[in-house]
Amino acid sequence: MLVKIRVVPNAKQNKIVEEKDRLKVYLSAPPVEGKANKALVELMAEHYHVKRSQVTILRGQKGREKLIEVDNP
Fold first, then answer.
1. What are the tens digits of pLDDT across the range 6-38?
2. What pLDDT sits at residue 52?
3. Angstrom distance (rounded) from CA 57 to CA 63
């Protein structure tokens, strides 16, 4: 499954908000040294009830607009 995401780093808490064509993901992690990407993968794995290894960032490693893939068993 492919999911479009808009990331908002340095938020007060981690949460996911559904928008029309994407998810808006608020992360408490800062956007430095890959911390926000790591937190995003962990949060999405928890949200979709899969392992972290089943969540891959396909596009947007350094930007706020991301495309992730979630492998469902």
1. 999 999 999 999 999 999 999 999 999 999 999
2. 95
3. 11
The answer to whether 14 and 39 are in contact (CB under 8 A) is: yes
Write the DSSP assignment of the chain as a string of letters.
Answer: -EEEEEEE-S-SS-EEEE-SSSEEEE-SS-SSTTHHHHHHHHHHHHHHT--GGGEEEEE-TTSSEEEEEE---
For 2-70, CATH number? 3.30.1200.10
The tokens describing 50, both together, are: 């899969």
What is the full DSSP assignment across 24-44?
EEE-SS-SSTTHHHHHHHHHH
The pTM of this model reads 0.92
